[in-house]
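tool_log.txt
---
The assistant was asked to compare two proteins side by side. It first ran the structure predictor on the initial sequence, then on the second. Raw inputs and outputs are pasted verbatim so the downstream comparison step can read them without reformatting.
(1)
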Amino acid sequence: MSIAGTLRSDISEGRYEPGDKMPTEAELAARFGVNRHTVRHAVSHLVDEGLVRSRRGAGTFVTAKPTDYPIGTRVRFHENLLAAGRRPEKRILQIETRAATPGEAKALSIVAGDSVCAYHGLSLADELPIAVFESVFPQTRLPNIVKALSGTSSVTAALRLAGVTDYTRASTRLTAVLANATQALHLQVKEGDPLLLSKGVNVGSDQMPVEYGRTWFSGDRVTLTLDHQV
């Protein structure tokens, strides 16, 4: 594991809590057996990610640790972040109506080429980008979903306005991928940085799919946890 990765794990596991002062460059250089320039470069990554901040003449301090984000049968973005003590925010990047791809059609139990609404957005915790996402909805099943999404950034609220009073996660698939240029721009990371891709299908009370979602989480800013029901 890299120096930045090791320090990131230390923060995530509570070795260093928010507000704690990090070891000096000399101490970290001795710990990892490298020169201070290498340590400085590693710490700069953590600064860019918003995990630590440097104060001239005082040292480097922990500002945050990766957000715990549980994935279970009831995945709710706002509730998850509030439970983790973070301030949630979603920004709409684009809402479009287009034809369903074969993969989307299979996930949503519709026919390829059927009309879907695709909602592209950015998720933030305490104003720090943690994920970009695309949620795809079947318009034949949810004819009012475009209007609903235009009035709120919340998928749960939009589905409620479209007539879906409750929904649950039917399936989840996690894979590791590398950030492309667009994702890197939105997440404020470097192209090629590691991301965690979550693909999931949400169903209504009748067990019919109402959303097929793909979310690319910043691998350094989120700790995904799966409950026993997934």
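(2)
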Amino acid sequence: MKPIRTERLILRNWQERDRDLFHRINSDDQVMEFFGMRRSRAESDELFDRLATGVERDGFGFAAAEIAASGECIGFVGLLRTDLEPFIAKGMLEIGWRLAPEFWGKGYVTEAADAWLAYAFEVIGEDEVVSFAVWNNNRSTAVMRRLGMQAVPSRDFDHPRVPDTHPALRRHVFYRLSQAEWQQKKAAN
């Protein structure tokens, strides 16, 4: 992938130096509050390799977000093709993120996600980008709204991969943004 530069960030493929941070964000109780599992180092490394390969192959994915001024990796923001039928059609483009807690509340996710939406609509030519989160994950749904995404309550769903041991994490809210809506938001700014 060709790195994407924003005002403060570089969105790029994963590098070996990012492995420790990637494991930390996938095993940290605070970061993973709305996920039913914590990844071991081996599981985290496997996902890291899969994401890096996908980003290299496709030119996008859940890619590393790095602070341009320091070179510090803070987590990931990116686009990924979904596979959650029948709730979300296979191949829909999802926007998602996960940052280490010390980088929360600084606008990094919104800044990076805006750049990824531009990529989705202008480079890939997608008609729509979707996102979803556990119903009470207020931090993530606030980002979705800041991005101009619209909640579609009729498309909320019980996530099929959430284990029975975590019923409170099963219900997910669904958000979407069309290319036309994104163009309108862009023109208004």
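---
observation on (2): The first strand starts at residue 4 and ends at 5. The chain has a mean pLDDT of 96.
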